[in-house]
Amino acid sequence: MSLRPAPLTGIRVLDLTRVLAGPWCTQNLADLGAEVIKIERPGAGDDTRGWGPPYIKDAQGRDTSEAAYYASANRNKQSVALDIATARGAELVRKLAGQCDILVENFKVGGLRKYGLDYESIKALNPALIYCSITGFGQTGPYANRPGYDFMIQGMGGLMSITGERDDLPGGGPQKAGVAVADLMTGMYATVGILAALHERSRSGLGQHIDMALLDCQVAMLANQNLNYMTTGQAPQRAGNAHQNLVPYQVFSAADGHLIVAVGNDGQFAAFCRVIGRPGLSEDVRFSTNSNRVINREVLVPMLVEAMKTQSRDYWLRELEQVGVPAGPINTIDQVYEDPQVKWRGMQQMLPHATAGEAPVGASPLRFSDSPVSYRHAAPLLGEHTRQVLRDRLGLSDQEIEELTR
Q1: What is the pLDDT of residues 134-152, one digit of tens each?
Q2: Residue 171 and residue 137 share a domain
Q3: Residues 157, 137: contact at Cβ < 8 Å?
Q4: Contacts of 318 (CB under 8 A, 6+ apart)
Q5: Which of 46, 150, 183, 216 is the catalytic position?
Q6: What is the pLDDT of residues 1-40, one digit of tens each?
Q7: Active site residue 392
Q8: Mean predicted confidence (pLDDT) in 182-201
Q9: In terms of pLDDT, which residue wins out, 192 or 172?
Q10: What does the pLDDT read at residue 184?
Q11: CATH number at residue 211
Q12: Structural domain span for residue 305
């Protein structure tokens, strides 16, 4: 069976983003086959180029100049080093925008207007362009001009109030997530919005402006916790590894380690009780339904904790799997990449890299039967594709490129 080209083959993206939320979005588009032209500051580039160590290593195991952080969000892109603060640089970027389907930027509100690269200016050149702006707080509102960073957005948006151990237990207090989830979720929402606008353009022939805010996305992704608050008027609190709406759904200590048990319904709870040798618990009216288990959590959980200490982690994992009760280990990241399922799904790829020879990347989770994700090359060197893009896309001569370089 012959495969079809990646879904966004033929779509061109102008990437004026740096750090994580914007680059995560444009990397998604690149993985889906789009041609992504990333504009970077000459001599410095994306801020995250300097966010090391660690750095990508070459075939001899020596550090290259390429930070792992930058490499995590910029594969499959072309890097063009242009200074938009100069008239000539801004002019060239505008010309590129005139040839693109999508532009993604994360400058401060109004920051691109003085270069003629704001939405209204580019719309006049290319009415079909889909222009996505990513900021901390959006294009409107009292905070619109404030800078916004993932860490502070996790705090402002409520995530840190429900993440971490309970305040009355050792180690309790506000805790951020282990990765920049506000940035990443904004990048994902931006991707969804762009693809929706691309589909709408197929009907209208027109582009539009997409206004993405980290705070909006952080508040939206509170999901069930939003409705827990809205339906009760009570703000959910930190619950450690427990679940606000399901019991038992938490970490347990076994005789030799820890595991997660995630009981999602009453049938699973009955099976769980049989495995741990406490079948009567599932017949007790206090615990027979999930709603009663949530209400009587403080009575039930200590009994389960004691029972789980009697066998090893692997014993529980094996026995619970046999009866269909969701359970799993708590892996370190090195253990993640040794997991047979993760290996089978190809979640680590090696891609060609200009200085390292090849470099590792975390794979896209998207799986298409007939038009798969496209892995072409690892994150580019700063300005690696400047000459190629200026020559092939804008028709500049070698002499013009030399003059621009000087």
Answers
A1: 999 999 999 999 999 999 9
A2: yes
A3: no
A4: none
A5: 183
A6: 568 999 999 999 999 999 999 999 999 999 999 999 999 9
A7: no
A8: 98
A9: 192
A10: 98
A11: 3.40.50.10540
A12: 249-332
